[in-house]
Amino acid sequence: MTAIAVTIAGSDSSGGAGVQADLKTFSALGVYGASVITALTAQNTRGVQGIHDVPPAFIARQIDSVFSDLAVGAVKIGMLSRPAAIEAVADGLARYGIETVVLDPVMVATSGDRLLAPEATETLRCALIPKALVVTPNLPEAAALLGEPVAADEAAMRGQAERILALGPRAVLVKGGHAEGHESVDILIDATGRMQRFAAPRIATRNTHGTGCTLSSAIAAGLAKGFALPEAVAAAKIYVSAAIEASGRLAVGRGTGPVHHFHALWR
Questions:
Q1: Is 212 among the catalytic positions?
Q2: Contact residues for 211 (Cβ-Cβ < 8 A; gap 6+)
Q3: Does the CA dihedral 3-95-21-132 come out positive or negative?
Q4: What's the pLDDT tens digit per position in 6-32?
Q5: Which of 110, 211, 214, 256 is catalytic?
Q6: Residue 193 catalytic?
Q7: Domains of the chain with bracketed CATH
Q8: 256 catalytic, yes or no?
């Protein structure tokens, strides 16, 4: 059977993040990708110039079109900028009994531009986070979800992961890419209290546009192929690290460039 994953996220017109990054990741990892577009962004490697939200009713129609026809193995959820959009997605997941959900709580773009309306944070916490198999916040997103300062060390990362876990998902992966040090460390904790640490050498590069989208979609790709969650996270970490390391082989834009999704395929 063909492994299929769906991204429910916003479009990045420059191709480095959002739905475009997700579909590239699915393809690079041997998974058929479908999409539900939640917003259009006018953006490039230097920032976000505009956001046009897709009406919630049309988000629901896309969900119905995709899930009524395709045998979906995993779902990655990214940018949802408004409460009504979050509710439309939550209702759609419930309508089709979708449980293998990777929720990347996209709140701020790499450029610093805000992508989630402040009033939508509570809706995200209550309506969507409890439906996720795993939530994948970076350090600023984890802090924003909890109303706390950004975690300064791994102990604080674990504490925030446990408090997000209390909101109802089956697992939480707090990503340490925004931290400092020689290693980039991510902390995974599940409902049993089991904690796993995933580390990779930190790569000195400005080409980090779309790294969060790419990691979460790589996890979804692994789940669609039948991997257990820890196995999917480990494989995704290896893939993203290699994509960052190879990003210098691309010359895209004049700002924060994208990672190289097809580093293993382009010669």
A1: yes
A2: 110, 177, 240, 244, 259
A3: negative
A4: 999 999 999 999 999 999 999 999 999
A5: 211
A6: no
A7: 4-249 (3.40.1190.20)
A8: no
